[in-house]
Amino acid sequence: MWPTLANGRIMKNFFLGLLLVAVAHPAFAQTAASPASQSKRAQAYYHFSTARLLEEDGDWNRAIEEFKKALDLDPNNSLIYSAMAETYRRHNRRNDAIAMANRAIEADPDNIDAHRLLRDIYMIAITSTNGRQPNPQDIQRAVHEHEEIVRIDPTDRAAFLMLGRLYQAQNLPQKAEEVYKKYLGIEPDSEEGVLSLARLHIESANNQAAAQLLENFLKNRPDSDPAWAFLGEAYSNLSDFKKAADAYKHAVSLNPAEAQWTHAYAQALYLDDQLEEAAKVYQQLLQDDPKSGLTLLRLGQIYRREMKYDQARTHLENANRLYPDDLEVEFHFFLLDRDEGLLESALNRLNKLFKQTTRPNGRYSEADLVNRRMFLTHMALLNSLLGRHEQAIQAFRDLKAISPEKDRVDAYIVDAYRQQRNLDSALQHLQAAMKEFPRSRQLQMLHADLIAERGRVDEGIRALEKLNASGEPDLEVVSTMIGIYERAKKYEKAQTILDAAFGKFPGDQQLYFLQGALYEKQKKYDNAEAAFRKALEIEKDDPAVLNYLGYMNTERGVKLEEALEMIQKAVKSDPINGAYLDSLGWAYYKLNRFDLAEQFLKKAVRFAPTNATLYDHLGELYYRLGRYQQAADEWTKALRFSTEEEETDRVRKKLDQVKTRVANR
Q1: Mean pLDDT of 315-332
Q2: Which of 22, 200, 479, 559 could serve as a FRET partner for 393 with CA atoms 20 to 30 Å apart?
Q3: Which domain CATH number covers 489?
Q4: Is residue 579 within 8 Å of residue 570, measured between CB atoms?
Q5: Residues 82-88, mean pLDDT to the nearest whole number
Q6: What is the domain extent for residue 438?
Q7: DSSP letters of 373-432?
Q8: Predicted structure pTM score
Q9: What is the DSSP letter of 4?
Q10: Is residue 286 part of a domain?
């Protein structure tokens, strides 16, 4: 214990003893000093010690006076300056504290107490801004003090880590990385050091480096729940959602109380299409917090994608009760209506969303524009499905006005005209668009395809060959050429193009798909199946390949159970694809599961209302069920949309036959 002060009198006798040891204190000692110098230093130490006692007794003003007397006797003593600075700091004399600490450092650049005091002052200034941006000068001063601290004391872990974070705040990631790596060289097993460097990598979009760092660390520290969570974040940023889900699963198992990680785990499962597992995790989160609007929304999304529409609607309605005007909830109601085939309701919801987000001044942020582009795209597609072609084209025109990819939108407009069988308007719009965007490869390919569809096959092919010769070989151009020859039933020429493509793009998955389709068109079914299965070896869940192979075998009446599974996967990936829905309905028909066949065939024609084959299939189902008038109605629609003579003749015969049955009933 220090001696106490009484009635303002200093116990001088006590300090007589201190004078004897004053020269032994490092800050006051002086080797081979003269007797006069030793006396001054002893007196300085007397005033220094007196100041300390006065401050402890609460008389800080007199303490300051004593510090000043000590400095008068020993003006270059760093210890006195730093102690005086600390006194000023404790009594909120910030500027005086800074001045004294700097004087201490001038006297002794290695005075770590003075550097730490300045560090504390600047860190308080940085973190006490009440939401405002901190003063960049304070950040730089804090950086300097941390740099000095780790120079003087390389074992100061906290200083190393804070220096790295300050460099990050200054947007100096390379310096931050150097500091963290230097620290890990001293403390290689430091969890905090690894997490700091991993966070830096993630924030710098260097997620692969973060993942590698964390994987190596977790080999020795598999019990580090934050490291697993960081690893999950890195893999999520890399779009490797399977690995992300595995990492988050470890984090949650180690620390189930961290709800944020459980949410991240559920989201990773959802993005990896592990919908059933994701639903289980979200249901558990919902039990913990029944009023979590986000959890209800995510469950609504999952059940919609699983085509459990009643459950999806229930969860969205619950979310809507919590957040009645939330635009995201409303948008998912639109998606649900659309996926169920409630197209009129879906369009009404979409129009409402579009109006709600319209700004009278016409000024939109980039995020707002992204949403409006998405809304207009959906509005165009829905209007097209509902047969409102002019409204669809107008929506595309509105989209073009705010889209950075205007030539792409022009291509949408051309396709919209083609769906109406209005090839003249399609060509007219395309020619105008090509004048506006003469270098657009997409429009040039579309133009070649369109003139070929109008019967000028050789001219279309020459245009594509010229386009392909102007640069690197383009698989999209090759695919368009093959499509033109297939449509013209010039299969040998299509095969020649395809053989050349295999030489330029060896092992490309799309080429095996194109090869399978070309064989199927020629009724070379075994060869087609081999090509499709080769494509699936490369990309096992490709929905287009799964659907094509599944439908081909369904038509042939072979491997029906496997075909059904393939088509179900395709539909799961795109539940509003009319062709996929038709394949599924047709597979159920072939398996005599007529209730499910009707459900999906009826839904298919909602999403592909101009496809004659779909109406033909629905007619076949109704005929098989003895519902002859409905069969006649569907075959009549099939005739309206049929474009191939062979198909037209086949459907007309069936229609004549069923009309006779209806008349004789």
Answers
A1: 94
A2: 479
A3: 1.25.40.10
A4: no
A5: 88
A6: 405-506
A7: HHHHHHHHHHHHHTT-HHHHHHHHHHHHHH-S-HHHHHHHHHHHHHHTT-HHHHHHHHHH
A8: 0.78
A9: P
A10: no
